[in-house]
Structures are given as C-alpha cells and as structure tokens.
Amino acid sequence: MNVRRVLATAHRVLSQLRHDPRTIALLLLVPLLLLVLLFYVFDGEPGTFDRVGASLLGIFPMITMFLVTSIATLRERTSGTLERLLTMPLGRGDLLAGYALAFGVFATVQAGLATGVALWFLDLDIAGPAWLLLLGAVLNALLGIALGLLVSAFAASEFQAVQFLPAMVFPQLLLCGLFAPRDSMQPALEYASNVLPMSYSVDGMTEILTNAQATSDYWRDVTIVATTALAILALASITLRRRTA
User: Is residue 244, in this structure, part of any structural domain at all?
Assistant: First the structure.
C-alpha cells in the first residue's frame, strides 16, 4: 500500500463530496435529527433515552455511512471512473484505503457533532468520559464504511446497494441486544448475535453508561469492532471489481 496514493485518492473523494451538499447533509445532519427525534419520542418515559441513546449514537452513523459509501463507490464503478483509476499504478488496497480515509474524515466530524448534541443538548446521562463515547461512535461509523465498500462490489446498481441495507444491517440491529438482552434469546439467535459486530458496538457503548472509566470489556468491544472493520475492508479490496457487468 502506497501512502502517497492513498492520500491522493482521499483528497479526490473529499473534493467531490465538497461539491455535493445533499450528501454532506445526509452524512452530518441525519444522525443528529434522528437523535433529536428519538429524544422526543421517549420524552414521556424518563430514563429510556439514556438507556438506548448511547447505543444509537453508534448505530445511526453506521447506517448513514453504509448507505453513502456503498452508493458513492458503486457510482464510481458504473460510471467507468473506477476502471480508469485502476489502469494507473493504483492498487485496489490503495483505492479502498483512500475511500475509507476520506469517509473516515466525515465519520469523525459526524460522530463529534452527534456526541456533542447528545451530551450537551439532549442531556444524555453517561458515567464515563465523553471521549470514550466519541471513540465508539467513530469506530461504528468506520464499520459502516467498511460494510458499504464491501457491498459496492456485489451490487449492480444504486438501488441494489440500498437493498443490501435490510440484509446486512437490520438483522444486526434486531440481534444486538438493543431490544432484548442477548442472553434471553433463543440459543441459535444468541449464537448469531455473538458473531455480529453490532452486538459488541452496543455492549461497548453501554459500558460507558455505567462505568466512570474505560473497562476491559469496553476495550475488548471496541477492539472487536475495529478489527472487524479492518477485516471487512481487506475483503472488500479482494472482491472489488473494475466495472459492473
């Protein structure tokens, strides 16, 4: 992997996104609006937002980054841009690392804004420091980026890319422990939840609610999320196609 090529790719993607205000609004504003909406949905149930808010602070960025990354990468391939880029001395790993870096910049800004709104505008009550919450949100957004890059290799159109959302994200959402404790599920579902990265995302964010300092469980959970994101990114570089057949 060539650092110079990765940075050049990231710069190109960021330049394109800068001229796309609708995508920027989707990346930066939608998670904030969803958090605010969720806060008022649970306004009549004290403590409910505090219980689920931290988890959704990671889940919402993951979903938005998944959508934007998968569609943006697929558009590069269907327009022929990807094929032209790969005729240059630019490896697939360089290309996807550049995409991940570019969208990672937006993921960090997105997570920072969402964390700030949750803590200081919506008064999300956490026992741990804010930077641990921010770290968890950023890693979840990076996981969404990696999943989006992987999906873009298999979708033939933007519509198909969107269709991958319920297939890859919604099962994780249902089994992550947000709606019911994972240890109370049927054995097969509990086993499935134990291998899905969003389960560890929710567990890690929940640790911050009740512990004043980062626990070993928290570091285990964020390490699993980060490692999974890197593994998916590596798989995406292997499966990336030059063009849509």
Answer: no
**Is residue 171 assigned to a domain?**
yes
Name the average pLDDT for the chain: 83
Residue 152's domain comprises 3-239
The phi and psi torsions of 105 (rounded to 5 degrees) equal -60, -45
- Residue 148 domain-assigned (yes or no): yes
Rounded mean pLDDT of 165-173? Answer: 85
Domain annotation covers residue 245 = no
- Count structural domains, the chain: 1
Q: How confident is the model at residue 127 (pLDDT cuts 50, 70, 90)?
A: confident
